[in-house]
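User: I'm new to structure prediction. If I give you an amino acid sequence, what do you actually give back? Let's try with this one:
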Amino acid sequence: MNPESLVVCDDVARTYGTGPAAVVAVHGSSCIVGSGARIAIAGPSGSGKSTLLHLMAGLERPTRGTVSWPALGSGDERAQDIGVVFQSPSLIPALDVSENTALPLVIAGVAEPDRAQRVAEALALLGIDQLAGKLPEEISGGQAQRVAVARVLAQRPRLLLADEPTGQLDRAAGQRLLDALLDATDHLAAALVVTTHDKAVIERLETRWTMHEGRLHTTIAPAVPS
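Assistant: Good question. You get back a string of structure tokens that encode the predicted 3D arrangement of the chain. For your 226 residues, that looks like this:
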């Protein structure tokens, strides 16, 4: 059975600015992310991989080409189907871990009983349920990044896009976070796309793409057993 196409980029490009000062972050790039995918987009800083991820998420519009989400909803429904994890956790200092995790659900109008269940499930999936009542200042950087992931997983997305999620963590903490990401996306049957320049992360994902100077190159390689 062929996987559903969750996001399709067709000859997308993204340019910032105009005239001589214009910067092309992504040149004409095409790719498909299917259901169940586990994809690493590798490349150095400034190669355009974060911009491509933002295009996939619908956070930015392409200057040229099209991005479509054939198997996902539209509008607010699609926003719930796509979860984005950024490099910085960006937790609200005045809210505890449970409240930070619940925030997108509150904004989306999810009823309290369902909200509480989703938050508890997400924190348990990330192994941080014991931190539920703690404030961001009371937890470590690695724990804060797990909270950021839990906040996205509580939405129960079908597509999870993670932008350098281990970039601010040491190797051990990064591997633990990746373990949790893989376990959680397996549990949710969600597709996972990770941008990274970390070789240890790249080797854990079965499909490897690379970006160089804004150009996407898609390749497939077997995952290295963990």
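You can read the tokens as a compact description of the fold. Here is one thing that stands out. The helical segments are 49-57, 75-81, 97-108, 112-125, 141-153, 171-188, 199-202.
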